[in-house]
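Note to self: keep these together.
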Amino acid sequence: MTVVGHLINGEMRTDAARTQAIYNPSTGEESKQVALASVATVEEAIAAAEQAYPAWRNTTPAKRAQVMFRFKMLLEENAAKICEMIGEEHGKISHDAAGELQRGIENVEYACGAPELLKGEHSRNVGPGIDSWSEFQPLGVVAGITPFNFPAMVPLWMYPMAIVCGNTFILKPSERDPSSTLFIAQLLEEAGLPKGVINVVNGDKEAVDVLLTDSRVKAVSFVGSTPIAEYIYSTANANGKRCQALGGAKNHAIVMQDADMDNAVNQLLGAAFGSSGERCMALSVAVAVGDKAADTLVAKMQAAMAPLKVGAFSNSDNDFGPVITRAHQLKVNGFIDSAEADGAKIVVDGRNPVVEGYDNGFFVGATLIDGVTPDMESYQAEIFGPVLQIVRVNTMEDAMQLINDHEYGNGTCIFTRDGEAARYFSDNIQVGMVGINVPLPVPVAYHSFGGWKRSLFGDLHAYGPDAVRFYTKRKTITQRWPSSGVREGVSFAFPS
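Structure:
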């Protein structure tokens, strides 16, 4: 059976002391094994990155950008292969995988602007004959730890910007679907990146803890669940590292009575059930303001969900695929059971769907639950599956209070025709990414991605302008060349 290994210093390696199964979620069958890196293997990757750093740091930003231009072309040329690899291990339907990859490519495009992004700042004559300027210098060896749900996009949020800023990078992708991530890193080396600048180690907590504690690693980026994000952030900080750790979410959509209900339903379908709900920006709660809006929303959602197709990634006619593992399938079904036991109404039941020819796949069908209240476990937790819950409130203020009281603050949106209401909502909601009639307000590559509250640990968001700040350190230089033959007197006063 194929064993997926590591990319260290430009060479494929297999650390076979410990392995873990990789499954095809559509069939439920084991397809490969992944090698789990030992401490020694991770340390070897760090050493390779450290050795490659001086030369890469001194490579001009223009030449770094040229590598990214070639990388972008290779990603586009190999898009079909990458999407197939994502489907085989994640279960994502081809059209969804293509969208994920495109958003990743947009971040590579942004990284191509390195010469502009790294120009720094300059002030002439801040004092008599004195000039001052700031430079953005790289940190050194940096690391990224990425989740299973976006094996192409989330790594591309991280290392293109880190690398064009002059750092070297170690990526620890999810061990559940590592093949596409590893292949993409190989494309970056094919684009001309020197050996050791990008290294990929597959592994579990043992590998992660090395990256968090080794003094040669200067910064860590993470995307995953909130408990792990909190652990990553606190451990990295305790070891003197810069860290950004993006955690979980419980994203709400407020549906006002004046909303274009047909449009809202269409938007909610994709935002709640796309990628089987395994998105940190998935809309998992619709907060309907008033029973009339709620009744209309539920009726229209029920009708619109009837033709939705869950199935294997290989059939592009399917709307979404399986969840990632059998354990996660059981967990999602458990939340549906919990909501029902707590008194909510299962309007559309996605438990145990029949997918012809794929009896052992990890499938959960689109599920709609009405009458959910904030005290229910299913409301409080991040389900991370194709489940949309309806919460009924009387006023917009009640809806906003519900959102502001939740521990997560990743994304939210409002469906309304009222500009005043939309403006009030965007000004006062305590969430990091806000949509107005836009259900998945994921920022474009030249803005930055990040939530509030327990959805983000750290001061800087992912990609965009914040990525330049995260992957560099500012150095300010003040310079003076005294005129020849002019002797200055001594001054003990603070310079002005």
